[in-house]
Hints:
about 160 residues, seven-stranded antiparallel sheet, three-stranded antiparallel sheet
Amino acid sequence: MMDHAEFRRVMGHFATGVAVVTTTRGGGSPVGLTVSAVSSVSLQPTMVLVCVEKGADSHDAIGAAGCFAVSFLEEGTGEALARRFSGKTGGAKFDGVEWRPETTGSPVLDDALAWVDCRLSQALPGGDHTIFLGEVVAGHAHEGSPLVYYRGGYGRLAP
């Protein structure tokens, strides 16, 4: 098996977009976390996947709520949001952040470049993560530049 540190270093050479995955806990309080493991899966039905660490404070809430949203972050405002949602600050992550509930009730960040709102279709084991498959029920995008993550840091696409 490959050394964990070397695996992390090697995979860091793959540039990814940055997103915030959100849902609600019982009672409607919003929870969320920063992720880079997001992918489209299927057009029929429209599906995406997100990989969430089992120890993340939002992990169990996704399964319990049966839905989640993915807000894809934009270059300008995205880094601050990515850092905020990557911390272990619980509900304080949403303090001062503008968001709205979408079709499923999952929070969508107002400053997102694009977003999808999903009903949970399956939860599959993925080592120390769970792979959540979601059927997309709504989404929207506007023009802009994405926030990217590469070799442990945030960046942008060069024109």
